[in-house]
């Protein structure tokens, strides 16, 4: 994956996505002891950065592939992203969702015109259901985080951030399936100036932290975290990029995530989901590391179930 891939991808998807704002807060800077620049992907279409990768993945398909539609398995943001991207491009979307997926996310998929296929809430069931649709309908499977075209698409958020603030010392992002951090690390490598990329994870689902230590993809033993977007594990396409370009991963507690989320709602007046708060929590957790530095934070999304606010 080269610099040119990111540039071409950004040009390709630009008509279908928002260029999201970068916000700052003097009060939060003072609290963190650093200059923080929040890339607000919570203002992206469908409310998360995943619109970028989903759009790029569909645009890279042939006319023949597009005519048969796309399929993915997702319990949340990628389900919405792929459905909206497909709708924007006149393509049918089939979404395998576990029975346990939040109603609000199922409603969003239906609203965007996606066809939901429900399955048992296990990864095996999700994969099997997606494979069945692929075989029966001839659709193209698009993985939420372990696809080269998705990874490059997600990297465009960091690319935009560095165009506006080329002198960042660090960029901190949450880690779930690994698509965002892999794309961010690629973009920082090509467009940053010695800019280090740092991942952030809840202690409860610290598979990426352990994967970097062991050198192989680790799985989670529990899924007991408020950061529902970060429960998945890394894949064979994104892990090599993470090993090569990511500096380190910081783990945070559930209490730190809730406090970080509350601070941003309260001080910056913007709605972010718990998974997004993990990155800000990591900066507050290791203030010495970031002291007097310029730090970009990618606010990955703002799709919150308002009936289940943690504060």
UniProtKB/TrEMBL annotation:
Keywords: Pyridoxal phosphate. It comes from the Bacteria. Pfam families: PALP (PF00291). PANTHER family: SERINE / THREONINE RACEMASE FAMILY MEMBER, SERINE RACEMASE. Signal peptide: none annotated. Its cofactor is pyridoxal 5'-phosphate. Coiled coil: none annotated. InterPro entries: TrpB-like_PALP (IPR001926), TrpB-like_PALP_sf (IPR036052). This is Pyridoxal-phosphate dependent enzyme. Residues 14-301 form the Tryptophan synthase beta chain-like PALP domain. SUPFAM superfamilies: Tryptophan synthase beta subunit-like PLP-dependent enzymes. It comes from Maribacter arenosus. Gene3D superfamilies: 3.40.50.1100.
